[in-house]
Amino acid sequence: MIEVESSTIKKIGYSYPDRKLIVEFKSGGIYHYKDVPEEVFEELKTSESMGKFLNENIKKKYEFEAVYLPGRREDSEGSELESSPKL
């Protein structure tokens, strides 16, 4: 994970084997975006506005999983907190 200059995003990272983009927001939430091409990660890193790039090019195009949301807990069976519908 690398710290970034952004008003909404604290850190970003990328898992190359499974093409997973990891985003930690300044609010504390951590999201994994699935099957994101490496090129999209590279574009995010160099974008003028990471928040805008994320909203326009990633959030609506790739499935995600919220792995941590501040103030929310997993249920007693360890179910996921939130995830996107299957595309």
Number of self-contained structural domains: 1
How far do the termini sit from each other?
A: 27 Å
Proportion of residues in helical segments? 10-25%
- What best-fitting shape do the alpha-carbon axes yield? globular
Largest sheet: 6 strands, antiparallel
**Average of the residue pLDDT scores:** 88
Indicate the low-confidence ranges by residue numbers: none
Rg on CA atoms, Å:
13 Å
Order of strands across the main sheet? 1-2-3-4-5-6
- State the order of secondary-structure elements, H for helix, E for strand: EEEEHHEE
User: Total strand count, please?
Assistant: 6
Class of secondary structure makeup: alpha+beta
Q: How many helical elements?
A: 2
Strand content: 25-35%
Question: What's this, in brief?
Answer:
The protein is 20% helix and 30% strand.
Description:
- With 87 residues, the chain is of the alpha+beta class.
- The radius of gyration is 13 Å and the shape is globular.
- It has helices spanning 38-46, 50-57, and strands spanning 2-3, 9-15, 20-25, 30-33, 64-68, 82-83.
- A six-stranded antiparallel sheet has the order 1-2-3-4-5-6, with helices on one face.
- It has two helices and six strands.
- It has one domain (2-83).
- α1 (38-46) runs antiparallel to α2 (50-57).
- Helices cover 20% and strands 30% of the residues.
- The longest helix is centred in the middle third of the chain and has 9 residues, at 38-46.
